[in-house]
Amino acid sequence: MMHFGILLFSLFQLAQADTHKEYWKNCPGPGCPARQEDNSGAAASREDKEVLKDKLDAIKREENKLHIEKEKLKEEIESIEKGEAKGVY
Predict the structure, then answer these.
(1) What residues does each domain of the chain span?
(2) pLDDT value at position 45?
(3) Where are the alpha helices (DSSP H) in the chain?
(4) pTM of the shown model
(5) Cα-to-chain-centroid distance, residue 32
(6) Which of 81, 74, 53, 57 shows the shortest CA–CA distance to 4?
(7) Dihedral of the CA atoms 24, 29, 34, 38 (nearest 10)?
(8) Which residue in 1, 33, 43, 86 is a FRET match for 66, CA 20 to 30 A apart?
Protein backbone atom coordinates (compact mmCIF):
# COMPACT_ATOMS: atom_id res chain seq x y z
CA MET A 1 0.00 0.00 0.00
CA MET A 2 2.91 2.30 0.75
CA HIS A 3 4.20 1.77 -2.79
CA PHE A 4 0.94 3.03 -4.24
CA GLY A 5 1.34 6.14 -2.11
CA ILE A 6 4.81 6.68 -3.54
CA LEU A 7 3.49 6.20 -7.06
CA LEU A 8 0.63 8.62 -6.51
CA PHE A 9 3.00 11.15 -4.96
CA SER A 10 5.33 10.87 -7.98
CA LEU A 11 2.48 11.33 -10.41
CA PHE A 12 1.20 14.29 -8.39
CA GLN A 13 4.65 15.89 -8.55
CA LEU A 14 4.74 15.43 -12.31
CA ALA A 15 1.31 17.03 -12.71
CA GLN A 16 2.32 19.84 -10.40
CA ALA A 17 5.48 20.47 -12.45
CA ASP A 18 3.38 20.84 -15.61
CA THR A 19 1.05 23.29 -13.86
CA HIS A 20 3.98 25.26 -12.50
CA LYS A 21 5.57 25.46 -15.96
CA GLU A 22 2.31 26.70 -17.49
CA TYR A 23 2.01 29.35 -14.76
CA TRP A 24 5.47 30.73 -15.46
CA LYS A 25 4.94 30.49 -19.21
CA ASN A 26 1.96 32.85 -18.92
CA CYS A 27 3.56 35.10 -16.29
CA PRO A 28 3.09 38.79 -17.18
CA GLY A 29 5.86 40.24 -14.98
CA PRO A 30 9.31 41.38 -16.15
CA GLY A 31 11.15 38.92 -13.87
CA CYS A 32 9.42 35.83 -15.21
CA PRO A 33 11.56 32.86 -16.20
CA ALA A 34 9.61 32.59 -19.47
CA ARG A 35 10.80 36.04 -20.48
CA GLN A 36 14.37 35.22 -19.48
CA GLU A 37 14.21 32.00 -21.50
CA ASP A 38 13.49 34.03 -24.63
CA ASN A 39 16.93 35.59 -24.28
CA SER A 40 18.70 32.24 -23.85
CA GLY A 41 17.33 30.69 -27.04
CA ALA A 42 15.86 27.34 -27.91
CA ALA A 43 18.77 25.34 -26.46
CA ALA A 44 17.51 25.87 -22.91
CA SER A 45 14.02 24.68 -23.81
CA ARG A 46 15.48 21.56 -25.46
CA GLU A 47 17.47 20.85 -22.30
CA ASP A 48 14.35 21.36 -20.18
CA LYS A 49 12.44 19.01 -22.45
CA GLU A 50 15.13 16.34 -22.12
CA VAL A 51 15.15 16.71 -18.32
CA LEU A 52 11.37 16.33 -18.21
CA LYS A 53 11.54 13.29 -20.49
CA ASP A 54 14.14 11.73 -18.20
CA LYS A 55 11.94 12.38 -15.16
CA LEU A 56 8.94 10.88 -16.94
CA ASP A 57 10.95 7.80 -17.90
CA ALA A 58 12.12 7.40 -14.30
CA ILE A 59 8.53 7.63 -13.06
CA LYS A 60 7.41 5.05 -15.63
CA ARG A 61 10.18 2.67 -14.54
CA GLU A 62 9.15 3.13 -10.90
CA GLU A 63 5.52 2.56 -11.85
CA ASN A 64 6.45 -0.70 -13.60
CA LYS A 65 8.43 -1.87 -10.55
CA LEU A 66 5.48 -1.07 -8.30
CA HIS A 67 3.08 -2.90 -10.59
CA ILE A 68 5.26 -6.02 -10.49
CA GLU A 69 5.49 -5.80 -6.70
CA LYS A 70 1.72 -5.30 -6.50
CA GLU A 71 1.13 -8.48 -8.49
CA LYS A 72 3.53 -10.43 -6.27
CA LEU A 73 1.73 -9.19 -3.17
CA LYS A 74 -1.65 -10.13 -4.65
CA GLU A 75 -0.39 -13.64 -5.34
CA GLU A 76 0.98 -13.89 -1.80
CA ILE A 77 -2.33 -12.73 -0.32
CA GLU A 78 -4.24 -15.24 -2.44
CA SER A 79 -1.95 -18.06 -1.35
CA ILE A 80 -2.38 -17.06 2.30
CA GLU A 81 -6.15 -17.00 1.87
CA LYS A 82 -6.03 -20.48 0.33
CA GLY A 83 -3.82 -21.72 3.14
CA GLU A 84 -0.98 -22.58 0.79
CA ALA A 85 1.53 -20.17 2.28
CA LYS A 86 4.01 -21.44 4.79
CA GLY A 87 5.21 -19.46 7.77
CA VAL A 88 3.83 -17.51 10.67
CA TYR A 89 0.72 -15.40 10.14
Answers:
(1) 2-82
(2) 80
(3) 2-25, 33-40, 42-82
(4) 0.42
(5) 26
(6) 74
(7) 170
(8) 86
